Amino acid sequence: MKTVYLFLVCALIAPLFAETVYTVPQGYTKVTIGASTASGSTLTSISATLLNDVEFSGLVTIGAYTNNPTGPNSQTLTVSGASWTSDQWSDVPYLAYISVADDLDNADGIAPGEEAFYIQANTTTGGLTLETTFDLSSRFPASTTLKIRRANTLDSFFGESSSNFAGADLVYIWNGTRWDSFQYIAGAPGYWASTTDGFTDVGPITIIRPDEGIFVSRTTNTDIVLTLFGEVPSAPQISTIRGASFIASRFPVDTTLIDTGIANASWNPADLLYIWNQDALPSAKWDSYQFIAGAPGYWASTTDGFTPVDNTPITANSAVFVVRSQDVGGAEGGTTSKLPYTLNTSE
Q1: Are the C-beta atoms of 234 and 343 separated by less than 8 Å?
Q2: Each residue of 23-42: pLDDT tens digit?
Q3: From the centroid of its chain, how far is CA 303?
Q4: pTM listed for this prediction
Q5: Closest Cα partner for 46 from 246, 219, 220, 223?
Q6: What is the pLDDT of residue 107?
Q7: How far apart, in whole angstroms, are the C-alpha atoms of residue 128 and residue 225?
Q8: What is the DSSP letter of 51?
Q9: Confidence of residue 1 (pLDDT cuts 50, 70, 90)
Q10: Torsion angle, CA of 315/317/323/326, rounded to 10 degrees?
Q11: What is the rounded distance in angstroms from the CA atom of residue 44 to the CA atom of residue 54?
């Protein structure tokens, strides 16, 4: 069970192009990593749905896209009037949240959405280099808005709860083709390490991206309860799904299959969505779903394509696995998760 508690804090988030004081929805949510059972270890899907504080906001112009055949693709951006120190946003992991003025297919006019990209480098004069799988100008206006937030890492996400992990407990992060696994090495101090190299501390640099979920395998018969703090998303959240992806639920409240918006992202009838069912008997399993095209279309179980199951719950702070039958380009793989709640703010 995962619960979200919300409270409002009045704060200044004044973009360079406006002078506005308004309430920022802050809150916390408790996420339970389930204990092992008599049948063995448990797998719990979790994600970082609350946002870290905005450390910079402003107007941005999208520049050149670089297709790098031997590494991550990148794109340059220029932020108006910014004056930064060298590597201000790249000495530790930061994310740039870029806004799009409408939903991706311009079909239903939802509120503006935002998507996060890892910052590779910055200049002292407002230049940013972002890691991206597609040309951002295919999705975002040439001039738009940007917010910079610190990225979550293994260290920051699990925090003091890291010490509650047993030696055989594992954290799995999907890298696009396989699961990378990590364990907590107890000590003074303890640290997070890859299971392929138990001597190197990777906790400060292993990013938990906001659009990606993680799996935790618990081998001990006690729960771990994480208390996560942050800003509650106030705009629809965009994810890019190209091939097989473990997609975060994006919000700290329960949602449903139809809320994900995933079927709008160049969806193919052979594409499948999986929800991990730890409580299935006699053993845990993936429940699989397909989207049945029509007017309107609907979600159905792969075992019964005739019964709509749009309201199948997706637990808060969890994740779903999506497998495309064919890879799509990053520009075509965007999907917008609509806000599942209404936030009341005051100026």
Answers
A1: yes
A2: 678 889 999 999 998 888 99
A3: 29
A4: 0.89
A5: 246
A6: 46
A7: 37
A8: B
A9: very low
A10: 130
A11: 29
